Amino acid sequence: MSTFATRFIGVLSVLTLSACLGTDLERAGGGALIGGVAASALSGNVAGGALLGAAVGALADDLSGY
Question: How far apart are CA 38 and CA 61, in angstroms?
Fold first, then answer.
């Protein structure tokens, strides 16, 4: 398996678990951390990844319907 595929699967696994946090603030913090790490692992813009991760994390429960 290629390095990219390994990293992608790891990032996807962590993102799947990130919606398990309790409040919007916790999910935003977790999303920011995961987004930053994912962007770094994929050689992207870490600040942009953290910002996008925070937004998705904060809205995760609204988007999922739970």
Answer: 21
> How far apart are alpha carbons 37 and 55 in whole angstroms?
15
Helices in the chain by DSSP H: which ranges? 3-17, 24-41, 46-64
Contact at 8 Å (CB) between 55 and 35? no
Q: How far is CA 37 from CA 51, 62, 64, 65, in A?
A: 12, 24, 23, 26
Does the predicted model carry a pTM greater than 0.70?
Answer: no
Tens digit of pLDDT for each residue in 7-66? 777 667 666 665 566 788 888 888 888 888 888 888 888 899 889 888 888 887 776 655
Tokens of 64: 């999922």
Amino acid at 4: F
